[in-house]
Amino acid sequence: MAYDLKAAEAYIRESARARGMDPDKAVRVARSEGLAPGVYQSTLGKNGRREPSYGPFQLLVGGEGTGYGKGLGNAFIEQTGLDPRDPSTVQQQIDFALDQAKAGGWSPWYGAAKAGIGKWDGIRAGEPSGVAPTTQIPVTGSGDTMAFGGAGDDTLGGDAMASTSNPGGLGGLGGFARSDGFGDWLSAIGASLMSSPSNNPLQGFSENLSNRQGQRQRQDALDIARAEKANDRAAMRSLLVSRGFTPQQAEAYSSNPSVANAAMDGLALDEAKREKNVTRDWLRQNHPDLADLPIDVAVSLANQRRSSQKEANDASQRESLAERYGIDPNSPEGQRFILTGTLPAPDKGVTAGDRLAIREADDIARDGDGVIGLLDEALKLSPDAYEGATAGARTWMGNNLPDWAVPDGVADAKTAQATKTYDNIITTQALGSLKAIFGGAPTEGERAILLDVQGMSSQPKAVREEIIKRAKAAVQRRVEFNRDRASELRGGTYYKPRVDGAPPAAAPVAAPTVPASDADPLGLR
């Protein structure tokens, strides 16, 4: 439940006028307290507990179990029998708070000093007007409009209501009578009458007035400083808690900024030490001979070793690739490739068409290895993924609806995520790669595999796993065929007679073609 801030402000103005108080200053105090969006209850706290202050004037309901002493909220409950935690009591809270301020000043409200309002500013402003407030404050959530102080419509009365003020009679001197300066004058006159000689009763008026004004200014400054200190301490508590201190530690340190800063510096040093200890432990496990060196030096040397080890691993991988592609690792070209990754110059006598065919064969072989890896991953996910015609709907529910909204028997987040990953591998990644590998003229077997893969998400698990295995076997045959083809083209043996006595194929113009006598070189039909 919330209350209408504009209606509350209008009521504060009316209630202040009824008590002969300055409505603008009353509103300023309320705005510095709780007359703001989202601040019906105070947003401050201590020892991990939110301050139990409520309403436009933040009436504190303290006592046992709250972590706070009793405040004006407790007095409000005892006096009215109402609870300031209930927003429907806002009108009574405003009347109570302004009565308290009228009797004792703004000192109980730290926000007043923060807003530059002294203890008696806007309070000593003459007699009440005797006109009861009539503003209605709508309370959101109750469905009712609550009328306080009399009948009338539920509008705020526009800006005219908020800005209207009565300067008083006597040609405007009434305004001065409602100021703090008038109170200073009265006090100075009284002090002068008591301290000056009878023949000059106002002899000490100037001095007394100056003393009175100075006293009030010092009190105002003290109130402001007290409020600022309280706010600074609250901010320091929040900062300390955010840095990892317990609420109890934050409360203890926040009273002294020097101690608080030292505590945060110490915490930062502790964190740095922990990081160094973690690094030192890693060095002892992976590079024990470096563990006793200065940390920066040890880390630099360890990084150099990792870089050297990576280069060695890369060289070892390139040596394996050289052997796979028919490059002699002991030849100068092979050594250059192993050490630098630079491929040997094209073999002499290899035509431009053959080089294009070699690149195409290498690409297909490389892409085929990647697709085989994707298909292996899909095989692992398939047992955990949904199957059947409802697989898509169950996957959507498991990934998009909260757990409590979907029975586990219908969908669960783990299986839905496995299904989503499975579908992504098959339809987004593997299918496109299969089309590229099989090319524009796939065999009948390959064409059947493509069609089966496109529609296998909703198939039973056993069926789709069989499709994946067939696709994997077809890709493997393509990979082996193209790898052998590239190797033979590089070695110059592709066009030579076969061991089985088959006649050599004719040399291609742009790229080698499959000999016409071998109708299905991959054995897919």
Q: What is the makeup of the main sheet?
A: 3 strands, antiparallel
| Structure classification | mainly alpha
Through-space gap between termini:
75 Å
Provide the residue-averaged pLDDT: 77
Low-confidence stretches: 126-131, 141-172, 501-525
DSSP helical segment count: 18
**Which strand-content bin applies to the residues?**
under 5%
Shape type: elongated
The count of β-strands is: 7
* Strand/helix succession: EHHEEEEHHHEEHHHHHHHHHHHHH
Strand order of the largest sheet: 1-6-7
List the defining traits of the structure above.
disordered C terminus; three-stranded antiparallel β-sheet; 525 residues
Record the SSE blueprint.
Blueprint: E1 2-3, H1 5-18, H2 23-33, E2 45-46, E3 49-50, E4 53-54, E5 59-60, H3 72-80, H4 90-104, H5 110-114, E6 136-140, E7 145-147, H6 158-163, H7 173-177, H8 180-195, H9 205-242, H10 247-254, H11 257-286, H12 295-324, H13 332-340, H14 352-381, H15 391-400, H16 413-438, H17 444-454, H18 461-491
Antiparallel strand pairs: 1-6, 2-3, 4-5, 6-7
Report what the structure shows.
With 525 residues, the protein is mainly α. Among the domains are: 177 residues; 138 residues. The protein is built from 18 helices and 7 strands. It has a 3-stranded antiparallel beta sheet. The chain has a two-stranded antiparallel sheet with strand order 2-3. Strands 4-5 form a two-stranded antiparallel sheet.
